[in-house]
Amino acid sequence: MANTTKDAAGRLVLDGWVQELAPGEVFVFGSNGAGFHGGGAARIAFDRFGAVWGQGHGLQGRSYAIDTMTDAATMARDIAGLLAFAREHSELTFLVIELGCGIGPYQPADVAPHFADAGANVALPPSFAELLG
Hints:
alpha/beta; Leucine Aminopeptidase, subunit E, domain 1; 5-stranded mixed β-sheet; two-stranded antiparallel ribbon
């Protein structure tokens, strides 16, 4: 798990920007519902980690798309789906970036609470981990 550290609370936290993935790591990125991965982290997921053009939700190669552009309810549903998927796949580590906070319309304080029940195999960006305490 080259991309993570643990914080004082024992939570898995991203250590810098994700440039590459170690075996068993999955890049979790913000997408639009149509899966047009033209910019930001979505483009990185498409170029480097197997995101599929036209697929705006779920596992794709070594990446996992969360629709952050349709509306907050869709984003919340996708995050809940990710957390359920992560619970079923403890052999994987999910590297969550600041979803929806770059090109998307949200701030970390809007998104972090959705990850309050994230399991031990979900690494959060430092801003989310700090907000969750």
